[in-house]
Amino acid sequence: MEVSVRALTRAARLRAGSRVAVVAPSGPLPAERLAAGTGILRGWGLDVVVGPHVLATHPLLGHLAGTDEERARDLQEAWCDPSVSAVICARGGYGAQRMVDLLDWNAMRAAGPKVFVGYSDVTALHEAFAVRLGLATLHGPMAAAMTFIEDARTQESLRATLFEPESVMTLGLDTAGVLVPGRARGVTLGGCVSLLAADLATPHARPGAAGGLLLIEDTGEEPYRLDRVLTQLLRSGWLDGVAGIGLGSWAECGPYEEIRAVLLDRLGGLGVPVVEELGFGHSATTLTMPLGIPAVLDAENATLRLEVPALAP
Questions:
Q1: Catalytic: 58?
Q2: Whole-number pLDDT of residue 311
Q3: Which of 4, 120, 157, 194 is catalytic?
Q4: Which of 47, 118, 144, 153 could disulfide-link 122, Cβ–Cβ 3.0 to 4.6 Å?
Q5: Which of 70, 127, 217, 276 is catalytic?
Q6: Is this structure's pTM higher than 0.85?
Q7: pLDDT tens profile 209-240
Q8: Residue 217 annotated to the active site
């Protein structure tokens, strides 16, 4: 089977004084949370700038941070600004799919590789950056997320990845364990699993996960809905040839024993190693997981070990 998932271009690591732009491609956010999160970033010695519409709200749809055009313009202008080294999303929610096709991908490609950080609804953008730009990205905490504001380990995982990526080559919390035994090598991809399913057949959807180490999590999906999402990925053939699967959190999805039963039922038959509760996504601690990086998933040790640092020297 042809490998669909290949190693992607890495952006350069950050240094003290690097300029970071914060944008809101999805939902609206409170000003106090933005102030708290950007304060942490500034405390790391970063020069933080905030997109013009980060605190905006769509005039009719209160679940969106400004209009689709405004959110897309903020992201594109930040990315194409030569003084900006990284773009960090403010929060998830919903809305990235509505604006992703409004971006000028040729202009963004010409701007060169930069660091891109986010999770949840930002999964749609991670996939687009991989397919349209061939760029490795960071599935990590967002600037106005309460987990980032309140949890020291979440903060340190992102800080170390941005500044000292060689220090975070082995990933996984103590909670991690074996769902299906084995060991596999591949290139990381993934995010919020319902967003991956929603991305199928869109202009920036890759043909499948063949050759990849799929990292998935979700929030607010009841067991039967999670079953439906995974079944859709199975029936479409998107999971054919996947090398291994790492599972994050399933916040507000129901009792974990019920979620675990669905995961084992739907993924256990793939014949690949599956590690559960690695510690990324909508959890009390959100580890930063690089996407587009060659790695080894070791179910016996319940770890994901990167073969190269997430960011280049």
A1: no
A2: 98
A3: 120
A4: 118
A5: 217
A6: yes
A7: 999 999 999 999 999 999 999 999 999 999 99
A8: yes
